[in-house]
Amino acid sequence: MLTPTLRLTLPSRANVQGCPSAKSSPLSRHFAAQESDQDLPKMASAVLGDLSSTSALAAGNLRQAQGKSIGVFTSGGDSQGMNAAVRAVVRMGIHVGFRVYYIHEGYQGMVDGADNIKEATWTSVSGIIQQGGTVIGSARCQDFRERAGRLKAAANLVKLGISNLVVIGGDGSLTGANCFRQEWAGLLEELEKKGEITAEQSKNCSHLNIVGMVGSIDNDFCGTDMTIGCDTALHRIMESVDAITTTAQSHQRTFVMEVMGRHCGYLALVTALACGADWLFIPEWPPEADWEDHMCRRLSELRTAGSRLGIVIMAEGAIDQKGSAITSNRVKEIISTRLGHDTRVTVLGHVQRGGNPSAFDRVLGCRMGAEAVLALLEAKPDTPACVVSLDGNQAVRVNLMECVERTQQVAAAMKKGNFENCVSLRGRSFRNNLEIYKILSHVKPPNNPQQSPVVVRQLSRCSVDGAANMFSPSSTSNRCPVPAKRPRWSADDNNPLKTGFECEHVFNIGIMNVGAPAAGMNAAVRSAVRTAILNGHQPYAIYEGFEGLAEGRVKVPKWMDVHTLIGEGGSYLGTNRTQPAKLGLPQIASKFKEFNLSALIIIGGFEAYDSVLQLAEARPQYKEFCIPMVVIPCTISNNVPGTEFSLGTDTALNAITDICDRIKQSASGTKRRVFVVETMGGYCGYLATLAGLAGGADAAYIFEERFGMRDLQTDVEHLAKKMVEGVERGLILRNEKCNENYTTDFIYQLYCEEGKGIFSARKNVLGHMQQGGCPSPFDRNLGTKLAAKSVAFLAEKMHNNYKEEGGRVVVECNEEDTACLIGLNRRTVQFSPVTHIKSQTDFQDDTLTRTVSIEEAEEFSMTTTLTPVTHLKAWSDFKHRLPREQWWLKLRPLLRILAKHESVYEVEGTEASIE
């Protein structure tokens, strides 16, 4: 069923720039644009212009919330990012005309009433986006479980005219809200009979509308890919693991680390994948009966292989096959007694709930909070209670009780011992994480899997029917071995590294970095090396990119060479921006031949994509380039076409957000201070925009959205008004190449001059600190998964395109789909050219939503796609190194609305249901 969404319109920056009419598609104007400095700004303005003009019809709906009230509360356990959600609900609610009330202390405050329910103002949520926990409090409430308590709560709400509730909590809190909604009519009738409310009050609040947001660090709620707080909890866990690693290495200790999650193993699983843990206990995947022997053998082999530490990750709800609890102390005793290792237990506990929220959780809270308000604005008496969830990279509205029922099915399946069903119910992301962990958790490559019970057992657990016979790495004097025969193996449909074929030969896979260093590069290298070995192929590490290849700086890495890379920042292989055309394609082709490369993985940014494009287009002249090639996008700029996220952007975004928090703190300590901060990103405004949203910035200037003196003056006036209203600080972000004339110095001097007597200004250029630091959990896991799937793709193409030539086996292919870029996109069509995606998209009218089930949502949610680089060429601005379509531009109006600018915001929520 197709239902129109609501768009909210106010005078916006796009309107004053003379944007084109909505009658012409932004895509058609996009392709009509010439390669000039103004191409991208025109395109972005066209998109925003379409939004403003097409939504003019809905302008009458803008203040339809006048006279209505929203109550927002947090319930159950707290989680980081709740404050961002509360802030978004308050500000978006006020923006569309609602009166918004805080309900302090959750359901208990609703029952007690009085000072626990207070009206919120715009300034009352200023400065809370970076705070952990919940500023309005949360509590468990026994009174609300009884009808008498719910009767008191209803009376308190009706007296204030509150008939719309935003609930931020877990499944218990959301279930309670739905029960409250179902009883609402009866409660009001009883209150009216008792004389506690008037007939008019009862009529004005005759229907209770409920919208939920899931705030939980456990990520145990079905119907959403991520819950508010989960990403930050992973940050706290990974910080602890990284800190413990140094002391464990110093003393050759084994650490058993217990993480939270109740009966959900998501935190433990992602942590194990992100740190390369040696053993994992989660309730959805209990170990076999002989797990003690297997675990001790694994840890012993690691020490023999040269590892100085051992890391065992445990979910607090870990159980065995019989359902009996496995405790961290029991695991410690087994390791200490059998192996004699110095073993310590670390229970992280509520540290995981603390600290400042990550950039992801802040942006998630902002998007969900805004969407919750707009869902209430659209709600009708017969609209069922819904949960605003995250499906891939899109906000969706899912029936509340359908999600709760699915969540309860997981607990029921676990109680029955049906663990396969548990994993399935957790969703595709959970399944993929688990399978890839199984693949990469080997201690070493098996020399003879047929005689190794450990390897046979491990491979069987990850649904692999057979295994490759590994060979010793070549010596430096024999760098180019002729592909050898090996035992055949295949993978079934449940394996994310599925190849669907049998391969008999060993091929050489080159792995290199091209472009600027970014967090996640090393995680991708580690995964590519180990997955290649496990597939029976020979990885070749190419140092210093194409320059290193030209000079012969190539090495065959061993299994343990990459053991610790997953948590390291920078580039282990070394990287630079030099592309093959600059060095000379004949020289590069000769090196491909010298090292007998049968496939190539390039990890890097726009230069990496351009390099593979150069090689692919040169195939008719150089048969050495007729091999399968994959680009893994890795750049902090997030400017690579064919993917919505690049490796490194999450880490960089967190670094910028953290610095902005410190800058805002400085501004708070100095009366009436505005900071102008310059971010990196080249011509791409992703970092400035998302950091602005996560950091609560007042404005973010980017290349894709044109701005002029009038806009700068408007922002100065906005800040002056803000100072007068009591918020005596300001934050302005500027992308480094947003405008060659309006430089950081110019904007700083303008603010200094125009703000005289009202505020002072300072500037900060963040520079290369945005590239440094340890990778975030997201970047570690994304790098691991993209590299593993890239190797599987290459293995399939090599198998399908090899032939005997002159007594040796060579790979030769020149089809477009053998030179691809792997990325995260909302569509699931593998190897889909962008031109095909174009035909499936209505760019003129994107105001329709589709009701889908959770099963369908998994098919349409964000997943890995492989797009031929030749098809991406038409969608690339090579002069500015930018893709011509960027999803995050739709978030810019939200940034300005939450900063109290008048702007346009498009509802992004898609209605979804279980069935």
UniProtKB/TrEMBL annotation:
Beta-D-fructose 2,6-bisphosphate binds at residues 577, 635-639, 673, 680-682, 736, 762, 768-771, 881. Its cofactor is Mg(2+). It is found in: Cytoplasm. GO terms for molecular function: 6-phosphofructokinase activity; AMP binding; ATP binding; fructose-6-phosphate binding; identical protein binding; metal ion binding; monosaccharide binding. It is an enzyme of class 2 (transferase). One of its GO terms (biological process) is canonical glycolysis. Residues 1-442 are annotated as: N-terminal catalytic PFK domain 1. Keywords: Allosteric enzyme, ATP-binding, Cytoplasm, Glycolysis, Kinase, Magnesium, Metal-binding, Nucleotide-binding, Transferase. Allosterically activated by ADP, AMP, or fructose 2,6-bisphosphate, and allosterically inhibited by ATP or citrate. GO terms for cellular component: 6-phosphofructokinase complex. InterPro entries: 6-Pfructokinase_euk (IPR009161), ATP_PFK (IPR022953), Phosphofructokinase_CS (IPR015912), Phosphofructokinase_dom (IPR000023), PKF_sf (IPR035966). Catalyzes the phosphorylation of D-fructose 6-phosphate to fructose 1,6-bisphosphate by ATP, the first committing step of glycolysis. Homotetramer. This is ATP-dependent 6-phosphofructokinase. The gene is PFKM.
